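Model the whole thing, not chain by chain.
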Amino acid sequence: MKHNVWVYIFICMALVTYLIRILPLTLIRREIRNRFIRSFLYYVPYVTLAVMTFPAILDATQSPVSAVLALIAAIAAAFFGGSLFTVALTGCLTVFVTELVTDFLIG
Amino acid sequence: MATERRKQFFKGLKDGFPIFLGYFAVSLTLGIHLHEYGLTPLQGTLASLTNHTSAGELIGFQTIASDSGYWVLILAEIVANARYLLMSFALSQKIDPKTPLWQRLLMGHGVTDEIFSISVSVPGKLDPFYTYGAITAALPGWTGGTLVGAILGNVLPVRFVSALSVGLYGMFIAAFIPPAKKDRVMAGLIAVCFALSWVFNKLPIFDGLDGGLKIIILTVVIASAAAILFPRKEASDGEA
């Protein structure tokens, strides 16, 4: 390799990533009053997280069936007030049990 | 003040535990494939410690394996991580405006999808110590998973890894469902996000777009439309 792996990892990857992470946090030091920007920033987190969840979750497990069931179970757990840990665990257990059962049925 | 900080730190640590498990599972798979990119366990582990991100590291390793130029990798990282710019922007409004620089710099390393997700879900203003607690749980999971994956390789049961991987999405769901339950606009918005995201990821005409870029485009378009159509009355928390 003609390039240095450590330059790749520490400069091109780590430093660039860190700069992206800290620029707004350090440069924007007061509350923004503009109503559009405030509303936009209010929606951003939820939109990003929803977009990242679906349809990516369908490819996260061994089968789309266990993923769909986990999605439904986790949404139900969150809807009925489950904590972060409960919701995450509900998803994991649903996948585990579903894949155990489907593997058993299919053989 | 000191006890409040400690309280917030341990709350973040506790909420960060599922992130620890999820990160461990995901970075385990990253570590397992490390040798395919020509990287040693040490290189991969240090990359995880300093980068703390899945998409950025995957793109990085692929670029390193193809021996592309440094600037190519820099551009790839900007695209893969640009969503952190939006998250950092949102966090700048979630913390006290008087938060000192060193705290902002420390928090910065915790701008990941999952830590962001739990940090913005805190009611009212965010205490940086909550985020430090979450980082203390998450970063060892991410770094350790890479190391264990690189060393153990494929000996871990697939079913175990498969179940843990879904935990990360569980955390996202736990963040966006409660506001959707309280507010019909949010509920509709989440449904729109799912639908558009599905279209964007399944229609072949969008295949050329990088995954990180898709997330940014969808976020900016949907959140802008929502801000225009449904501006927040007296914008979120703590506004006088």
